[in-house]
């Protein structure tokens, strides 16, 4: 039998190697919650939530507060009926990151019992992916230095955080492109531009000969018209991140022709909605990338397994474990520079 016997939460604190600076937010430490699920036949599943107050209104203390209620709802259910468990968790867990952690721990315990990987349960499309690495907001000089060193480390896709000063941002991206040759850039404004500013940014860089692979979340999350305006007024593919939290929101973005790409984060949608979002986007030929919050290797493992299972993501932004001070990676994957292989 693969019946859930217990689910426990544990707090884990991590420090960023250097303060992580995105538009209007600097983070130095994170408090994540690890989920351990045990079955009566002795198998264990692990999951992790890195609570995001900024996007999901999640706080660690709110996550701990529901531990007993979640136990009550799920103990006694069979991990082999994981779709049924997903339906229950969709209706009862309000925090999407926690939903992802619980849902993943169910699949992880089942994969132990079946002696395969979660990536194989989800489809087994590929056994490795390539990730980018992120440049925080800083002075132009600092950002160029970081980008050059990330490229030297072996990363071919560089994510650049912008959004606090459009003129400085243009200079930073231009200078990075001048110093780093042969890289692809994902530029993420984390909702901080007004639509016209975003168009100015994109047009200016385009006229300077800079190519941007993905222009992520230029405007506010609910500003669907703004996203569409940026999409149709500039040359770079526009990607929704904060706008794409649930399958319903993604469907609305697509119906409105507002985006070229969707950034799926399990921490925004849980695994259940992420599966739907993949299928919605595939049906519409909308591009897909996968991202993360501040998960350790345990939480990154969830996204690695998901990405390898489906094999549909053009870009993987799964670098939080690389920029946190985590002593030893514990996920079921092997990191080799920019490549991540499932075990
Ligand atoms: Mn983003």
Describe the structure.
The structure is a single chain. By secondary structure, the chain is of the alpha/beta class. It has helices at about 55, 60-65, 65-75, 80-90, 95-115, 120, 140-155, 165-180, 195-205, 225-235, 245-255, 265-285, 295-310, 320-325, and strands spanning about 5-20, 25-40, 45-50, 130, 135, 155-160, 185-190, 215, 240, 260-265, 285-290, 315, 335, 340. The protein has an 8-stranded parallel beta sheet with strand order 5-6-7-8-9-10-11-12. A 3-stranded antiparallel beta sheet has the order 1-2-3. Strands 4-14-13 form a 3-stranded antiparallel beta sheet, with helices on one face. α11 (about 245-255) packs parallel to α12. It is globular. The model has no long low-confidence stretch (mean pLDDT about 95). Manganese (II) ion binds near residues 190 and 291.
How far is the N terminus from the C terminus?
A: 25 Å
Q: Which parts are unreliable, with pLDDT below 50 for 5 consecutive residues or more? A: none
Rounded mean pLDDT is 97
The helix-and-strand class reads: alpha/beta
Please list the strands of the largest sheet in the order they lie side by side.
5-6-7-8-9-10-11-12
Ligand inventory: manganese (II) ion
Largest sheet: 8 strands, parallel
Basic shape: globular
> H/E element string?
EEEHHHHHHEEHEHEHEHEHEHEHEHEE
Fraction of residues in β-strands? 15-25%
Helix content: 40-55%
Number of E-state strands: 14
Radius of gyration: 20 Å
| DSSP helical segment count | 14
